[in-house]
Description:
By secondary structure, this protein is mainly alpha-helical.
Amino acid sequence: MQSGTLPAAWRKLLLTVHVIATVSVLGIDLVLLLLGLVSLGGADLRMIYPVAYLVAARLVAPLALISLGTGLLLGVLTPWGLFTYWWVTIKLAITAALTAVVFFVLVPRLGAAVDAVSGSASHVLTSAERLPLVIAPAIASTLLLLAVIPAIFKPGWRLRRNTNSHRDLAASSA
């Protein structure tokens, strides 16, 4: 299948799955932010961190992969392309970076925090140790919200020109 040849019904289905997954990640990031704020407020960390870990590992991680995968497919299978319009490339970079952070930073650190607060040698986490559960979802939510703006307005600025259209113009004028 060539770029931009996805039938309209399939494109709409893929776009729907992409939007639902991405909005779900945003909503779950806000839940993680709330859990982080509650942990700073003195809530029982033996309750907060296991819930935050489950939410990150079982919801955010798979939904982030779905968001990234459907975004890549939309870029490849529609005329927008992955590296044609700057707003698509920025959304791709944000989604890829946040997905990597979920898998390689957030889930492992929350797992370590669960072990720290619920193991036999559990200890109370300091405010500095609890702060990343506030900062990470706040940054992720902000980046996801920033990615929405160009997706809605779709500015026409291109990263590169379509070389095929230049060839077609040259051939038609010869």
